[in-house]
């Protein structure tokens, strides 16, 4: 299996080299990733999708996270990486015009010898209620939550969120201990985009 090669950036966000993903995470070097929030606007409201990460993941296994995310390979454009990840992780085939760019965010996280120092390029994708997700090896499940209920959880009016799995009748409860911690950091920009269509 070939090593995944990523571009390394300095504090001024200038490209300074190319290293393997493993080496970048060991040294905590800045690199780029893509994140995609997926929403569905229906007759009875707006819904937000989360993915459940594979239990085989080295970080946050089995936890619920942004609908789709991944690394930008060395020499790859962010939008192309986002399109690739949507196809690989959840089986959606889209084009650039389907994506709405939300901006850039910086994230740093360390757990043992794993140090993630990310430059996140963020996108929003709107899907229809009949969209079929085809889950790849990195994703256990996808769930859908009402944005109104989600906002109540964000505002701490609710401690738990009961959500629907795409598997049909399966019900899932989301709590602080099974949602990736970075989720809350996105919410102001996300909710403004969802409600105002910005």
Automatic annotation (TrEMBL):
MF terms in GO: hydrolase activity; isomerase activity
Keyword annotations from UniProtKB, A to Z: Hydrolase, Isomerase
One Pfam assignment: NUDIX
Transmembrane segments: none
Gene3D superfamilies for the chain: Nucleoside Triphosphate Pyrophosphohydrolase
Ranges for domain Nudix hydrolase: 29-167
InterPro entries (alphabetical): NUDIX_hydrolase-like_dom_sf (IPR015797), NUDIX_hydrolase_CS (IPR020084), NUDIX_hydrolase_dom (IPR000086)
Protein name per UniProt: Isopentenyldiphosphate isomerase
Source species of the chain: Clostridium saccharoperbutylacetonicum N1-4(HMT)
Taxonomic classification: Bacteria, Bacillati, Bacillota, Clostridia, Eubacteriales
